[in-house]
Amino acid sequence: MGKAVLALAAPGVSLKDAVMAYGSSGGSQKDKPEEMPVALQDVEGGDIQIPEDSGIAFIVSLEQTVESGDH
Question: Cβ-count burial of 15 within 10 angstroms (0-12 exposed, 13-18 middle, 19+ buried)?
């Protein structure tokens, strides 16, 4: 299994309208990035992008998994 990378970013105040627009409709209903573009920045060392106006961002990677049994 390859390394999984995840970004979790909290949007800044300037993205309030975009957050509401993105959260109020499904992707099959409209092209959200086309209608409400958000400026993105690259995350160093990967191919992930996060909004430029992010109050805080966590970039995490999965190094290994551990079997813990059947629950």
Answer: buried
